[in-house]
């Protein structure tokens, strides 16, 4: 595949997507859901493996220029390597099971990644207790502001 094709894949260049029972081909009538999003990284393998390790997930097989991390709820983060320009930091929040939160914090500590109670990263080594749950923020290898929460935010 030429470098140009890697940055501008055509439909015919993608392998057939494996069938997943938890990922229906179409949503129910009237429903809209996020299916996937691209996460830019200077090294897609390093970044995908980092997040998968923290969340206790697996990195999937390459899909064209993308390296997927399936979140298990029908949404995939497709890591895409971008070395020709700076990575624009984004925020990604993950609703995680209460019984898995401590293991995720332990994995961050084992990786020597500082976590914070707030999005501005001014309360290191602490978690928050918003909305009756627990949460923490941490940076991935490219500076994306990742968040794990056990309770979704109450919205007006």
Structure description:
With 156 residues, the protein is of the alpha/beta class. Helix content is 19%, strand content 21%. It has a 3-stranded mixed beta sheet with strand order 1-3-2, with helices on one face. A 3-stranded mixed beta sheet has the order 4-6-5. The longest helix is centred in the middle third of the chain and has 13 residues, at 98-110. The model is unreliable at 1-21 (pLDDT under 50).
Largest sheet: 3 strands, mixed
Q: How many extended strands?
A: 6
Roughly what percent helix?
10-25%
Low-confidence stretches: 1-21
Write down the Rg.
17 Å
What is the number of helices? 3
Backbone shape: globular
Strand fraction: 15-25%
What would you call the quaternary organization?
A: single chain
Q: What average pLDDT do the residues reach? A: 87
Order of helices and strands: HEHEEEHEE
**What is the structural class?**
alpha/beta
Separation of termini? 49 Å
Sequence of strands across the biggest β-sheet: 1-3-2
């Amino acid at each position: 595949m030429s470098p140009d094709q890697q940055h501008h894949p055509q439909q015919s260049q993608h392998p057939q997507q494996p069938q997943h029972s938890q990922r229906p081909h179409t949503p129910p009538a009237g429903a809209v859901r996020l299916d996937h999003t691209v996460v830019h990284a200077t090294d897609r393998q390093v970044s995908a493996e980092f997040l998968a390790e923290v969340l206790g997930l697996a990195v999937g097989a390459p899909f064209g220029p993308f390296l997927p991390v399936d979140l298990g709820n029908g949404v995939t983060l497709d890591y895409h390597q971008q070395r020709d320009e700076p990575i624009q930091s984004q925020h990604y929040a993950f609703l995680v099971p209460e019984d898995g939160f401590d293991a995720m914090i332990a994995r961050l500590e084992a990786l020597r990644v500082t976590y914070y109670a707030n999005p501005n990263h001014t309360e290191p080594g602490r978690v928050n207790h918003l909305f009756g749950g627990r949460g923490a923020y941490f940076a991935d290898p490219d500076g994306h502001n990742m968040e794990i929460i056990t309770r979704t935010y109450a919205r007006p």
